[in-house]
Amino acid sequence: GENVEQHPSTLSVQEGDSAVIKCTYSDSASNYFPWYKQELGKGPQLIIDIRSNVGEKKDQRIAVTLNKTAKHFSLHITETQPEDSAVYFCAAGGKETSYDKVIFGPGTSLSVIP
Amino acid sequence: EAQVTQNPRYLITVTGKKLTVTCSQNMNHEYMSWYRQDPGLGLRQIYYSMNVEVTDKGDVPEGYKVSRKEKRNFPLILESPSPNQTSLYFCASSPGTRGYTFGSGTRLTVV
User: Fold this and answer.
1) How far is CA B109 from CA A20, A26, B101, in A?
2) Of A39, A93, B37, B72, which shows the fewest CB atoms inside 10 Å?
């Protein structure tokens, strides 16, 4: 089955710097890759997603890249702000739609230092 | 407001006492799912449902039951809770074209 690894487990950056979180997956059939942000005491929130027919997607300060050959995908946050501090989860799914089993990575705790 | 509502937020119970965690969504989503979150393990899927009366096991279904009699509701049932089911539980729903919308979580402690 699918296995998702995520690095680093913790990340501290200065406000205004960029943050990069990297994930690898094992199942080459996976073709849906969402990213979630979880703030303290809340449920995860979908912040961006990418499908296998797209190599890169950007939404304001957030971008995701996908390398299907290497089975890597990454989250890039530019111009970080204190409110970006949270736990970020990557996930990989086996089909285009979201209902299929989506396997989550273990999470990255991001701290943005003012 | 579009949301997934789960209750209760906190629950302490004793081993073997049946309990139900309710989940309701107001977005008319077809797909619903239950996850448990444990430190260092991320989110693991317990059960999911593609539509009314259609459910399937996720990665960690042992000790749990679900039902989907109505589109909006997807309760999680623990027939005989054990201490290893102490965890943070999330219900989630999706239209099937994008990722899940998660509830605020239920922190369950089984003593």
Assistant:
1) 35, 33, 24
2) A39
